[in-house]
Amino acid sequence: MLYPVLSWVGCMTLRHMSIKQKLILTTMLTTCVALLLVTVVFVTYELVTIRRALRHDLVTQAQIIGMNSAAALVFDDRQGATETLETLHARQNVVSAALYTASGAVFATYHRDDISQGSMIPIPQPDGYRFRANSLDLFQKILRDGEPVGTIYLQSDLQAMYDRLKRYGNLGALALLMSMGVGFLLAVRLQRVISLPILHLAQTAKDVSEKRDYTVRAVKYHEDEVGLLIDSFNEMLTQIQERDAALRASNQALTEQQDLLLQELTEAADYVTSLLPPQLTGAVQTTWKFLPSERLGGDAFGYHWLNAEQFAIYLLDVCGHGVGAALLSVAVMDALRSHTLPDTDFCNPAAVLRALNMAFPMEEHGEMFFTMWYGVYNQSTQQIVYANGGHPPPILVTDASPHPKKVIQLKAPGVVIGAMPDLQYVNAYCDIKVRSKLYLFSDGAFEVTRTDGTFLTFTEFVALLARPSLSGMADLERLFQDVQTLHGSQAFDDDLSIVQIILDPNLGRGLC
Amino acid sequence: MDIDVTTTAQAVIVAVRGRLDTTSAPVFEQRLADVITQGATYIVMQCNELAYINSAGLRSVLLGGKKLQAQQGRLVFVGLQGIVKEIFDMAGFSTLFQTFASEDAALA
Amino acid sequence: MPVPADVQIPLLLKILTFDRNFEIKINTALTIGIVYDPQNPASLQGKDAIAQSLAPFTTKTIKKLPIAYTLLEFTPGKSLAEIARTKHINVFYIVPGNVEHLPALLEISWAQQILTVTGVPAYVDKGVAVGISLNRENKPLILINLASSKSAGSAFDANLLKLATIVE
Fold first, then answer.
1. Contact A415 B54 (CB under 8 A)
2. A475 touches chain B (CB under 8 A)
3. Cα A419 to Cα A21: distance, rounded to the nearest angstrom
4. CATH, range B2-107
5. What ipTM does this complex have?
6. Is there a single domain that holds both residue A166 and residue A302?
7. For the purposes of burial, counting CB atoms within 10 Å of the CB of C110, is it exposed (0-12), middle (13-18) or buried (19 or more)?
8. Which of chain A's residues have a Cβ under 8 Å away from the Cβ of C139?
9. Does domain C5-167 have CATH number 3.40.50.2300?
10. Is residue C75 scored above 80 in pLDDT?
11. pLDDT at position A373
């Protein structure tokens, strides 16, 4: 049960020790164990030797006493025998002694001074010795001419042995302590050979990691495995350094390239924006909001006076967004402004759309079609004629109080332009009797997701327009902000264009 | 967006679920092209679970329809509703493709 | 003889084993010559007693040598010396009643290296080498005339001498 606790403690402690401590610990442990083993071996050897010596000594003693006591035993001279035993006084280790007759009766006894003189003497045993905890007992027959005349018993204490052992123990402990001390000092000194290179490497690694300075290199101290480690480490750093430099260069190039692209896009966007019409005042007042989802979009719109009386208005939306869509929108806008469609009456919206459909088949323009509403306002007739090619219908809102507000969708059937060859479009008409506000927009204006994820419907969008009018151009701003609020953010997924045109039949004619 | 293609004796029914917008349009376009290449002549677009379609979606539909027409085939629509129908109608696609109220009507 | 013959004899035999020159002097058999005066009744009595006690020992050995005894009548004129030599006597047991014969016996003893033993304590003072007496506790006491024993060619073990009474 103890073992797992110890090993856990050991592991925990070992884990937090430094290399220096570990090295010293291993050395000390080895030294200690080795010393202990040596001590044990020597002490054991000594123990065996001492015992043997003790035994020999006692045996010899018994023989001498025995020989000297033979006469006394033979002639029944107890006194003589006792006197002979008394010579054992000289041998301080002999505790007790006894002589037995051949028949086994006690003949004479001896006890050391510190032992009570009446102490028990054991009964005679066969020849032999026995080591007890505190004594060595010896029985030996006394022979005369090969015949046993009696037995001698000697008991020696083991004091000499224990004294010797204690001395050895003390000496051993002292030697151990001294050796450990010297060993420790040596270990501290010598462990540096191993730990120094490792610590240096660790420090270098730490420096590199903290400062991210890959020019640093670790110093190699020796040609051993640590040296190999350091070489590999330095090699790795070189590689990192090279890759880092390469990466920087690559990033640099990319950034430069990106900057270039961005610059070009910005230039293109500026050009597209420059194509958009100026905001007019006068007989026809215009204002607009243009927000491509990326820098360039597929939305475009325009208006211009065709002649003294007719004012063309158009808004187109190329499917998709980005550079591709923008390029097509520019091409279409150019055709409309420069009137470069062959045999086309630009006052006839249906004809214009038909001509555009012929001129821009989607197969020849990157599989892109576009929606478009084209209308012509005639100041004299106070009428708008218009045609639609798949585009959300503009909303006309009358704005002449006290007349009730009317909201009219300028719808006309028609397929998206470029979809199929020979598509036909129809002209529709709308009279402008009172001052009205015409709103043109791309689907990006109303096809927005609300904060709850549902889509704003066209109807809801129209409802926004039907609110009481604000003066001037504030309506557009309000509309735009409402849409933004509903969407919940300022960024839109699709290109957003809204144009507001105020048409007032009561205003005088005039070119703007 | 998920596309399920079911082939019956009379037609290949392509059911589209989710949004058919700029991200999903290319996938749909490719799938439709595969169906057409495999020789379908009458494709029924099941739009019951189509939640939204934008100009990119319309474009892929149109491209598929034109490709099918070149093979003497037809592309029709079933289950257009809500904003999808609005967009579909506004783009004038109702004049280009036939629409039905139900699949049975389309397969009849 | 204060100590009975049957006690003396075993004791004497034991004493003999403590003679370090035993093997030198005695090499075939231990032959004890019991010297008596035929005219002296005490002597005769003593002789009989000793002989009787010695008899059982003739079947035993001492230091692996057989034990034998012979009766030696002391008559002046008779060459006891010659007989002793012939019979290879190693030990003279001198029974009581031989006091006048002691000097002659001793002469032979010293000449032929024959040890003299007795049961009469007084004889030891007169020159007999080994004698058995009785001590104060009425226990047998060994008397040894050291000079005489040495002259007879014996060298008794120090341990024996220790417990014996030395007579000058």
1. no
2. no
3. 83
4. 3.30.750.24
5. 0.89
6. no
7. middle
8. 76
9. yes
10. no
11. 95
C30 contact residues in A (CB cutoff 8 A): none
Q: How far is the CA of C146 from the CAs of A283, C81, C121, C128, C131, in angstroms? A: 181, 23, 14, 9, 11
To test the contact with chain A by mutation, choose from B90, B94, B97 the residue with the greatest count of A C-beta atoms within 10 A, namely B90
In this prediction, residue A220 carries a pLDDT of: 87
**B96 to chain A: which residues are within 8 Å by CB?**
415, 419-420
* C95/chain A closest Cα distance in angstroms: 22
Question: In this complex, is the C-beta atom of A391 within 8 Å of any C-beta atom belonging to chain B?
Answer: yes
Nearest Cα to C50, choosing from C146, C154, C137, C132? C132
Q: Does the pLDDT of residue A474 top 90, yes or no? A: no
Q: How many CB atoms lie within 10 A of CB B84?
A: 20
Beta pairing, strands A94-101 & A147-157: antiparallel
- Whether A416 and chain C come into contact, CB under 8 Å, resolves to no
Contact at CB, A75 and C162, closer than 8 angstroms:
no
Nearest to A285 by CA among A472, A432, A477, A480: A472
Whether B72 and chain A come into contact, CB under 8 Å, resolves to no
- Burial (0-12, 13-18, 19+ Cβ within 10 Å), A296: buried
pTM of this prediction?
0.53
CB–CB contact A390 B96 (8 Å): no
Q: Closest residue of B to A495, CA-based? A: B55
A136-170 pLDDT tens trace: 999 999 988 788 899 999 999 998 888 988 888 88
DSSP for C18-68 reads TBTTHHHH-SS-EEEEEEE-TT-HHHHHHHHHHHHHHGGGGGSEETTEEEE
- Percentage of chain B with pLDDT > 90? 35
d(CA B43, CA B35): 9
Task: Summarize the confidence of residues A216-226 as an average pLDDT.
Answer: 88
Average pLDDT value over all residues in chain A: 86
User: Nearest CA of chain A to the CA of C79: how many Å?
Assistant: 36
pLDDT tens for C19-33 read 988 888 888 888 888
Check whether residue A330 and residue A434 sit in a common domain: yes
Split into its structural domains, chain A has a count of: 3
In the structure encoding, which two tokens stand for residue A181, read together? 């001390």
Do A247 and A260 lie in one domain? The reply is: yes
**Interface mutation target, options A299, A416, A492, A493, chain B, most CBs of B under 10 Å:** A416
Q: Which residues of C touch A67 (CB under 8 A)?
A: 159
Residue A473 pLDDT grade (very low, low, confident, very high; cuts 50, 70, 90):
low
Please state, in angstroms and rounded to a whole number, the distance separating the CA atoms of residues A409 and A505.
19
Both A247 and A323 in a single domain? no
Cα B98–Cα B99–Cα B103 angle in degrees, nearest 5:
120
Q: How confident is the model at residue A370 (pLDDT cuts 50, 70, 90)?
A: very high
Are C14 and A75 a contacting pair at CB < 8 A?
Answer: yes
CB of C136 within 8 Å of a chain A CB? The answer is no
Say if strands A496-503 and A383-389 run parallel, antiparallel, or are unpaired: unpaired
Q: How confident is the model at residue A418 (pLDDT cuts 50, 70, 90)?
A: very high
Q: Residue A510 — very low, low, confident or very high, per pLDDT cuts 50/70/90? A: very low
Contacts of A79 in chain C (CB under 8 A): 163
